[in-house]
Sequence to fold (185 residues):
Amino acid sequence: MTRSCRGDTQAFEALYRRYGGKVFGIAWRLTLDQGQAEDLTQDAFVRIWQQLPGFRFESSLATWIYRVATNVVLGKLRTSPGVGGKLSVVQEEPEELADTHSGHDVGQLMDIERQLRALPERARMVLVMHDLAGMTHEEIGASLDIAPGTSKAQLFRARRLYRELESARGESAHSGALSQNGVEG
Fold:
């Protein structure tokens, strides 16, 4: 870790291998676009490389990486209308994302992703930022320019809507897979 902070490219490559899949997963869940998520993953790691010397060890490295990545994605969403909107065609989960969930049934994970796609955009974003990227409501509020209380309400709404979608599909067995993947029920 400290080697990465000092600019060691081999150490940074190891960092990328360790966290790249999760960063891609966050980008994909926020944008719902595989190509955009791939580009944003690269952009996020460029930003991480640039900011790594200033990492202050006040949080875990993983949490910091996910926050940087989330901010890169949100910055792109703010400047590119239409990115992150609802898809009119249901896409299958990208292979790269499936690879990040070793040990879980890929069919279950694809169902989870479909249900996440069905959530309203703001609720989905708050859910991903809180439950997957580990951001606090204050950080989410600052990133999305909303009050922390609004973030809490959106998270509550997202979880409620997710459970309703889950019940409507009769897939209560997936709630365990959801919580195992960082989305609490």
The radius of gyration is 16 Å.
